[in-house]
Design goal:
The protein has 496 residues and is an alpha/beta fold. It has 21 helices and 13 strands. Helices cover 46% and strands 11% of the residues. It starts with 9 loop residues before the first strand and ends with a helix.
């Protein structure tokens, strides 16, 4: 591989750090002296651009050298990422895509990646070590085995397996329970379990999953985890596109041969509830916000940014826009986004730290419009079966309870249903893009003739499907989408 000048790009490794191009920021600390304190499950792009970067920044300041990260995964697909990262000593190139220019930094806070095993034996053994004081996770919003009402789905086959075979679990949560059991038996305290997924009250949700699973096989252990452990809430924010050929070419042009580079926007935020049972790094020194009340930050971000992503991504897929920035560059779609936000979302978001919701929206519009961030509509629309219930529907419930304007959110849901029919308006196919894709396509195609079929999916809508105000608005918009197309339907909404 060669860089932009035709020179051979430098293979990333500990041995080549000193030889990287001069402009590349790299670790100034001795990586060989790092010792582990954190196991992170789910080593996707987001974790490496966000949580791992905060720890790397602390290490650059001479701190937290006993808090290095050991990576882990529980899905067979994680093995390929493990191979790529181990081949380069778990180093990562982060490429910041600022509208004004591109910069790069190599981070080194991660020092190992555990084997991917069906019984999770090494993961359990590592988390059982009292040196591990935090176990953090990014396993997607839909990965916490929740029912439509928010409770734990104890009837799920994975949880039933782990309850029946607690020593050889198949889930991350079963592995955590097994490790906590081993720590209790050995007289060691529990680790802090920290969720870093986009979920309102994510600490409570992780507590529910871990404690609830433990209770199925060992009620005394569940009580110990519940009383002695800690599950802090955390709000995470940074737009991190998927890595494709374009992203790999950027890092190669910079002179680095990295098998797993990550691009990200020029913005990060991490708000953490300061509740840990076994210590923590001084993340505040790296720019994180430590607080006793994460909820307002979560609410603002999830309702405006995450729900806003769904407002844009579904219509973008339908009409063929490739990226979120392309959507924001379309005057009609940008106006649709702003109206849904100002009439349907912002009235139900409080100011945080002196920042009104309208000011936060302006920040989000600028971030979404960044042309260097090729955040695809496909990536953002992925797993709508988790994202719409988690990001959009809570605000819809608030709007209905307040007698507010629900038209924009109803149209957002209709656009999701139209997208899930599996074709764009130009006739091209939308490839499967949800764990429940087949059932979504069946419901979406049936809803073309009877919109109520879509709302009858109780796992997403629950009681909302029977609300006449929402059902009427949804049905009207979906019928118009099929009859007149997205552009005319959005124009009709904008003219209301």
């Amino acid at each position: 591989m060669k860089d932009a000048q035709g020179h051979r790009a430098m293979k990333l490794s500990n041995a080549t750090l000193a030889d990287l191009p001069q402009a590349i920021v790299r670790p100034t600390y001795d990586r060989s002296a790092l010792t582990p304190g954190i196991v992170h499950i789910g080593l996707g792009n987001f974790h490496r651009a966000h949580q791992a970067w905060y720890l790397h920044r602390l290490m650059q300041q001479g701190q937290a050298h006993d808090w290095a990260i050991i990576g882990a995964g529980v899905r067979p697909g994680d093995a390929a990422m493990r191979d790529r990262l181990l081949a380069q000593d778990c180093l990562n190139t982060l490429i910041e895509l600022d509208p004004a220019g591109i910069s790069a930094e190599v981070t080194g806070a991660m020092i190992d990646f555990l084997p991917i095993e069906e019984d999770n034996a090494q993961l359990i053994a590592t988390m059982s070590d009292p040196a591990i004081r935090i176990v953090s996770l990014t396993v997607t919003e839909g990965g916490y085995y929740r029912r439509a009402d928010g409770g734990l789905d104890t009837g799920h086959a994975d949880l039933k397996h782990d309850a029946a075979h607690p020593a050889t679990p198949r889930t991350a949560f079963g592995a955590m329970v097994a490790a906590l059991r081993a720590r209790r038996t050995a007289g060691h305290p529990p680790f802090t379990a920290m969720c870093c997924d986009n979920l309102q009250g994510n600490g409570a949700i992780l507590r529910q999953t871990v404690v609830g699973l433990a209770r199925l096989s060992d009620p005394d252990l569940a009580d110990w985890i519940d009383t002695q452990g800690a599950f802090p809430d955390a709000m995470v924010d940074c737009i991190v596109p998927a890595t494709g050929d374009a992203e790999r070419s950027i890092v190669q042009d910079l002179g680095i041969d990295d098998a797993a580079p990550v691009t990200h926007e020029n913005f990060r935020q991490w708000v953490i509830e300061d509740h840990f049972c076994a210590g923590r790094p001084d993340w505040a020194a790296a720019g994180a916000t430590m607080t006793d009340n994460v909820h307002p930050y979560e609410s603002m971000k999830i309702r405006i940014l995450n729900a806003g992503h769904q407002v844009l991504a579904n219509v973008g897929e339908i009409i063929g826009h490739q990226t979120i920035a392309d959507c924001m560059d379309d005057p009609r779609i940008a106006a649709f986004f702003r109206k849904v936000q100002t009439t349907g979302i912002i009235p139900y978001v409080d100011a945080v730290d002196g920042m009104p919701a309208a000011q936060y929206l302006a920040l989000i519009e600028t971030r979404f419009a960044n042309p260097r961030i090729r955040d695809t509509t496909r990536r953002v629309a992925f797993d709508g079966s988790s994202r719409h219930p988690g990001f959009v529907l809570p605000t819809l419930r608030d709007a209905l309870a307040a007698g507010g304007d629900i038209q924009g959110l109803a149209l957002t849901e209709a656009l999701w249903a139209r997208m899930c029919a599996g074709t764009r308006e130009d006739g091209s196919q939308i490839a499967p893009n949800d764990p429940l894709w087949n059932s979504l396509v069946d419901a979406a195609q049936a809803a073309r003739h009877d919109p109520q079929v879509w709302l009858a999916q109780d796992g997403f809508y629950g009681e909302l499907g029977d609300n006449p105000l929402f059902a009427d608005a949804f049905g009207n918009w979906l019928n118009q989408l099929w009859a007149d197309g997205a552009a005319a339907t959005i124009d009709a909404y904008l003219s209301r």
